[in-house]
């Protein structure tokens, strides 16, 4: 009997050591997305999130790249004293947004969740998840293992049969060929303390016609009952993605269960058509929540935006544009959602860091 117990103990010890080794290998070979090597520093976004004090975030921003580049939590704190975090990442679909929201609620109790509308529409028509697999990995590789991640991985692989659940549990299966390209940051790196903001510096020159009319003004007086007459069914870029819509439903339901207000946001982009505006407005009204669209002339002007000087690449704002949108959102959240200021040591400590970081860009 003692021999059997010893054999079981040795097997358990071996499995524990094996798990530690595999975890260490995976940590090295998983790609690192930092400000130093990409415009989309999702590794820093997720790693810093886990470093935040519990119950320290009052507003959570979540969504795709336009959210990541257009919202500066430090700017919102410096101007209004509101603590927020930006969990937006490039091409983040609404399945990712839903599960990162669930993960965030394990540690935070936000008063408001702001989610963008980009992925409510077809982005990759030939992809089951409206999203390419490498981006999916980028969003989930740095989520901690818990019931939430297990559920997310199962859900993703259930929908997209081309993906393997095992490769999420053992990432070195997916990234084994990265051994030949490992660099110093794969072994040791520091994350930028930008609370999820992805800075884009400078501006891309626009054609003359784009400068004279940077976007098609959207009607801000559309009534829901008139929507059928306005929606252009031939607008293929504005086709609802029903799977994504179902996960936006889940996001809103989860927030309502937790007593959290939800706000849908659309940032300045030439892809935002009047059809998409109406569809999103209908959807938001059906759930009794608000929709803010910075492509609408009135809101665009209230925020003081300039499509030429504040624009980075026609789809995302540069630093100056992000400051304006962030400033507007801070005031809006305070006035319309009653989010109150509070001093927090993390945001106080990074005030100088933020200014110095932007000065180097």
N- and C-termini, Cα separation: 67 Å
Widest sheet: strand order?
A: 2-1-3-4-5
The total of helices stands at 17
Structural class: alpha/beta
State the share of residues found in helices, binned by percent.
Answer: 40-55%
CATH class: Alpha Beta
Q: For the residues shown, what is the average pLDDT?
A: 86
Rounded Rg: 22 Å
Summary keywords:
globular, alpha/beta, Rossmann fold, 361 residues, five-stranded parallel β-sheet
Describe the structure.
This protein has helices spanning 2-29, 42-51, 65-70, 73-80, 94-104, 133-140, 147-159, 165-169, 172-175, 208-212, 227-230, 242-257, 274-286, 297-302, 319-337, 345-349, 351-360, and strands spanning 59-62, 84-86, 112-116, 261-266, 290-293. The chain is an alpha/beta fold. The protein has one domain: SGNH hydrolase (Rossmann fold). Helix 4 (73-80) crosses helix 15. It is globular. The relative contact order is 0.16. The mean pLDDT is 86.
Topology:
Elements: H1 2-29, H2 42-51, E1 59-62, H3 65-70, H4 73-80, E2 84-86, H5 94-104, E3 112-116, H6 133-140, H7 147-159, H8 165-169, H9 172-175, H10 208-212, H11 227-230, H12 242-257, E4 261-266, H13 274-286, E5 290-293, H14 297-302, H15 319-337, H16 345-349, H17 351-360
Parallel strand pairs: 1-2, 1-3, 3-4, 4-5
Helix pairs in contact: 4-15, 5-7, 5-12
Quick recap:
The chain is of the alpha/beta class and 361 residues long. The protein contains 17 helices and 5 strands.
């Amino acid at each position: 009997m003692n021999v059997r117990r010893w054999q079981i103990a040795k097997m358990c010890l071996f499995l524990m050591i094996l798990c530690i080794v595999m975890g260490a290998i995976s940590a090295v070979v998983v790609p690192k997305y930092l400000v130093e090597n990409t415009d989309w520093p999702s590794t820093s976004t997720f790693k810093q999130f886990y470093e935040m004090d519990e119950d320290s975030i009052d507003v959570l921003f979540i969504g795709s790249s336009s959210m990541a580049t257009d919202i500066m939590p430090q700017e919102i704190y410096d101007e209004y004293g509101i603590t927020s975090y930006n969990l937006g990442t490039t091409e983040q679909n609404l399945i990712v947004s839903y599960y990162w929201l669930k993960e965030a609620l394990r540690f935070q109790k936000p008063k408001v969740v702001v989610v963008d509308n980009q992925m409510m529409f077809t982005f990759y028509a030939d992809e089951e998840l409206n999203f390419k697999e490498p981006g999916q990995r980028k969003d989930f590789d740095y989520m901690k293992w818990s019931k939430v991640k297990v559920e997310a991985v199962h859900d993703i692989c259930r929908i997209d049969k081309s993906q393997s659940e095992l490769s999420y549990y053992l990432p070195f299966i997916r990234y084994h060929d990265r051994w030949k390209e490992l660099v110093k940051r794969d072994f040791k790196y520091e994350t930028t303390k930008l609370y999820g903001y992805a800075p884009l510096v400078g501006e891309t020159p626009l054609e003359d016609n784009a400068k004279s009319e940077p976007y098609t003004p959207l009607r801000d007086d559309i009534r829901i009952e008139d929507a059928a007459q306005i929606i252009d069914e031939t607008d293929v870029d504005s086709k609802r993605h029903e799977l994504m819509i179902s996960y936006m439903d889940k996001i809103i339901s989860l927030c309502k269960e937790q007593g959290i207000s939800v706000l849908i946001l659309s940032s300045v982009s030439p892809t935002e058509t009047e059809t998409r505006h109406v569809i999103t407005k209908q959807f938001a009204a059906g759930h009794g929540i608000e929709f803010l669209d910075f492509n609408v002339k009135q809101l665009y002007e209230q925020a003081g935006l300039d499509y030429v000087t504040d624009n980075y690449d026609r789809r995302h704002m540069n630093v100056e544009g992000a400051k304006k949108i962030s400033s507007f959102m801070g005031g809006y959240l305070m006035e319309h959602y009653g989010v109150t200021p509070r001093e927090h040591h993390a945001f106080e400590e990074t005030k100088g860091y933020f200014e110095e970081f932007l000065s180097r860009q």
